[in-house]
Amino acid sequence: MQEPSKILNRRTFNPGEIIFYEGELGNQAFVVQKGRVRIVKNLPGGERGTLGFIEEGGIFGEMALIDQSPRMASAVAADYCVLVAIPEQVMRTKLQETDPFLRILINMMLRLIRRTAGTTPIPPEDMKTLAETAQWTPIDTPESSK
Amino acid sequence: MSTGGKSREAAPKTVLRQRKLETGDVLFHEGDWAGEAYLIRSGAIEILKRNSLGLLESQEILGEGDVAGEMALLANRPRPSTARVARESVVLVVAKTDLDRSLTNADPFIQALFRVLSGHFMSLVAKKEEAEAKAPLRNREPDEDPLTALLDISGDEGSDGR
């Protein structure tokens, strides 16, 4: 079995360093292994507001990998951070090869996290993706291939 | 990037059961031990919780694309709420045993992704519950939205009671 750490890519950031900018096209998601990441959004009039912090064990930037949308906010290292970068291609390939059932549950987890955190509204595109995936699921298929 | 090794046809697909529910049916009860969650294909399911007076309080109404009873998949603990069918519904049954089997067969990367996501979710739930547990001490109104209580608490986080 292959260690996840061999596929994933660890990166470190100093306090204040930009991890990604709002509006960029994203090709990586990140898992915070150490430190805290501040999520910052540009406000009308040139000001910037903090949307929240991603703590250790948190994941961020995954939306851009799932629906190819531009980054909705910037991510800035709040402390010295160790991040595990997940390249888009890795994510996509792995998800495609995954049992669709598990893929749905991963989507479900993303949604539950957003809903529980209550900070970010669920984008309609994401809802649509989820609904489409859910309908994909075979219904009432006889359990023949066990 | 080496993806070689396991052949693709080796990944078995999980087949889900479907269940049709009538208005008023109780899908599950608060306090039950269970190993299933439900993905809502159609209809509406009301989530209720018993308050300090022992009355069932409506928490939210779930609809198409929502999931009910997810805690059964993620933690070894009884149902935190009751689910009652508000309108004729069709749900897909997601069994913990199916999830476990699917995860075992999955790529280590996907296993890690799922673990991270469920860990993140559970820590959010713990934070929310911690806030809710404090709420009754602040003589919460019987019909007060628990989320409001949650906001109240995070609001005076600065003043440390003692």
Account of the 3D structure:
The complex is a heterodimer of chains A (146) and B (162). In chain A, a hairpin with a 5-residue loop joins strand 4 (37-42) and strand 5. The longest helix of chain A is centred in the C-terminal third of the chain and has 18 residues, at 100-117. Helix content of chain A is 34%, strand content 28%. The model of chain A is unreliable at 119-146 (pLDDT under 50). Chain A contains five helices and eight strands. Chain A has a four-stranded antiparallel β-sheet. In chain A, strands 2-7-4-5 form a four-stranded antiparallel β-sheet, with no helix packed on it. Chain B is of the alpha+beta class and 162 residues long. Chain B has helices at residues 71-74, 96-105, 108-134, 146-155, and strands at 17-21, 26-28, 36-50, 56-62, 67-68, 82-95. The longest helix of chain B has 27 residues, at 108-134. In chain B, strands 1, 2, 3, 4, 5 and 6 form a six-stranded antiparallel β-sheet that branches.
Beta-strand percentage range of chain B = 25-35%
> How far apart are the first and last residues' alpha carbons of chain A, in Å?
24 Å
Order of strands across the main sheet of chain A: 1-8-3-6
Largest sheet, strands/sense/barrel of chain B: 6 strands, antiparallel
Runs of chain B in which pLDDT lies below 50 for 5 or more consecutive residues are: 1-9, 137-162
Q: How is the main sheet of chain A built?
A: 4 strands, antiparallel
Reading the helices and strands of chain A in chain order gives HEEEEEEHEEHHH
N→C terminal distance of chain B: 55 Å
Number of helices of chain A: 5
- Which term fits the overall shape of chain B? globular
Radius of gyration of chain B: 19 Å
The helix-strand sequence of chain B is: EEEEEHEHHH
| Helical/strand content category of chain A | alpha+beta
Helix content of chain B: 25-40%
Total strands of chain A: the figure is 8
Number of strands of chain B: 6
Mean pLDDT of chain B: 77
Total helical segments of chain B: 4
Instruction: Give the overall shape of chain A.
Output: globular
